[in-house]
Here is the input.
Amino acid sequence: MVVADDDRATRALVARWVQTTGLSVIEAGDGEAALLCVNAHLARVAVVILDVMMPNRDGFGVLGALRADPATHALPVILLTAHATDEPDVLRGIETGAADHMPKPFSGPLLVARVRQLAQQRAAAVRTDWQLRRAQTAATRDPLTGLANRRQFEEVLVAEQAYAKRHQSPAALALLDLDHFKTVNDVFGHQSGDRVLCHFAEIVRATLRVEDHAFRVGGEEFALVLRGTGVQGAELVIARLRAELSRAALILGSDRTSYRIRFSAGVSPLDGEKAVAAVLKEADDALYSAKRSGRNQTAVARV
Here is the structure.
């Protein structure tokens, strides 16, 4: 936790009491130093104790800055002040978001009890936030490859089509299907099949730009949504992906067979003028055209 007070003796006394809770203490001598300490050690900070009267930004100023920053807005803050019972100061602290006011001189046991309570509440809130984030990730990510899943694909496809229309910018959809993937599972086993899927996903991630999106939408089926590039640009991206895969063979099975992933692709423009369902069907039809024409190639939708 962070204790900020311009009086060294008060700061040391607060630190000694707080350390009886098992929390480590970082000390700061003024308001700006307090903010620097909180931001530098955010993962370790459970509670912040601020003296109201400090140089280089007072306690209210520090509290306001913490509340304005999304990364620190939920940190519990105790204000230490000689005017803890003065109504204007109490009201200002409440309005700014203080968890508590304590008078100077303070009661050590009372301070310890309040710090312990706030630290426990903070820990519980962090655990809840982590669980929510984990649940959200599970709902939108494919657990095997780490790529976004079909549910996320459908949402992003709608959003990127709207973006393309709003900005009059080109975009493209590519559907990819690994060739002869069933043979990998039949010959080398499902564990090797999983390795192939993960390897393919890794190469896709390394090949795409930051603004592009990749998804696993089925067993061996993948999708790319490419922003700011048309069909020709998408074909170049897919060609790059094929080249990277050809250089990155996998060793499968007990006989250490060298296996290079091959895939078929169907591409359709995502220009914002057609319904998403129509774009998806065009890309899907192009994909099956590539499959029928011998696989390991890219077909472009007829538009």
The two ends are 62 Å apart (CA to CA). The chain has a mean pLDDT of 91. The chain has two domains: 2-138, 150-300. The first helix runs from residue 8 to 19.
